[in-house]
Specification:
Organism: Kribbella sandramycini
Protein name: Enamine deaminase RidA (YjgF/YER057c/UK114 family)
Structural class: alpha+beta
Shape: globular
Distance between the termini: 16 Å
InterPro entries: Endoribo_LPSP/chorism_mut-like, RutC-like_sf
Pfam family, one: YjgF_endoribonc
Order of helices and strands: HEEEEHEHEE
Largest sheet: 5 strands, mixed
CATH topology: 60s Ribosomal Protein L30, Chain: A
Oligomer: single chain
Strand order of the largest sheet: 1-2-7-5-6
């Protein structure tokens, strides 16, 4: 299997710098053979790539792109914690929070922006359990937030 960062490059993507926390927490914590990330927002070069609610100001397609960016930010946090993404044995669980209107019910499709990236980069090791949760608001008015648990 190719190195995860080579797979990202093949997709035209690269790991960003680790996003600075917006409050009192750290981006990732390792305990034993698991790494837990804090919720990652769709920050690209320090700026949210979209704001607002999915189903209103943000389309499902843009929200899916946001989920992918959140996933990249989570992978960057994991790399900073373990040194090399090739040490990931499995993406265990992803949780996607989607700030959406009450009528919007496409949270699973939005979360696919992250889930599909994990499959493309890690193959079978990227198959994971997942929750896609609609919420009324997220920090900084972000439309999506993603957190991960990975086995190393």
């Amino acid at each position: 299997m190719s190195h995860p960062e080579e797979k990202l490059a093949e997709l035209g993507l690269k790991l960003p710098e680790v996003a600075k926390p917006v409050a009192a927490y750290v981006p990732a914590v390792r305990t034993g053979n698991l790494v837990y990330t804090s919720g990652q927002l769709p920050l690209r070069e320090g700026t949210l790539i979209a704001t607002g609610k999915v189903g209103d100001a943000v389309t499902a397609e843009v929200a899916s792109e946001c989920a992918q960016q959140c996933a990249l930010n989570a992978l960057a946090a994991i790399k900073a914690e373990i040194g090399d993404l090739a040490k990931i044995k499995r993406i265990v669980k992803a949780v996607a929070f989607i700030a959406s209107t009450p009528e919007f019910t496409g949270q699973p499709q939005v979360a696919n922006g992250a889930s599909e990236l994990f499959g493309q980069v890690f193959g079978d090791l990227g198959q994971h359990a997942r929750s896609a949760v609609g919420v009324p608001v997220l920090p900084l008015d972000a439309p999506v937030e993603v957190e991960l648990i990975v086995e190393v």
